[in-house]
Amino acid sequence: MNDIDAWVWWLVGAAALGIPLVVTAMPEFGMFAVGAVAAAVVAALGPGVVAQVITFLVVSVALIAVVRPVANRHSRQRPQLASGIEALKGKQAVVLERVDGRGGRVKLAGEIWSARALDADRAYEAGQEVDVVDIEGATAIVI
Prior knowledge:
The chain is of the alpha+beta class. It is built from four helices and five strands. The termini are far apart.
C-alpha cells in the first residue's frame, strides 16, 4: 500500500464487489460495495485503517439491516394494476355467436374471443352480456 493510496484500494474492492452483484443478482453485494465506497471516502479524509474498516462494516450492515426487509416486503406484494389475462377476469363481454359448453364467440375488451360457458348445460345467445370468470389459453370462460 506504499505506492497506492488506501482509498484507491477501497474503490477497487467496491468494483470487485459489483461484479458478483451483476453476475448473481444478489443485492447484498451491492450493499457491501456501497460500504467500500464509504470507506474510500473516509480513507481519502485521512483516518487510519481501523476507522476505514469500521465505516465499511457499519455502512454495509446498516444497509443490509434496512434495505433487505423493505425489499422483501415489496417483493411479496401483488401488483396494484392487473395486466394481461388477469385484467380480463371479471370484465363483461357481449356474446357474438351462441356460447355454450362447447364454445362460441364473445367481444371482450374490444377484441373477439372464443368463449365457453362455465356451466356446460347453460347457453348464452347473441347480444347477451356475460361475465368473464377465467381465461384458458385463448378461450374466455363465461357465466
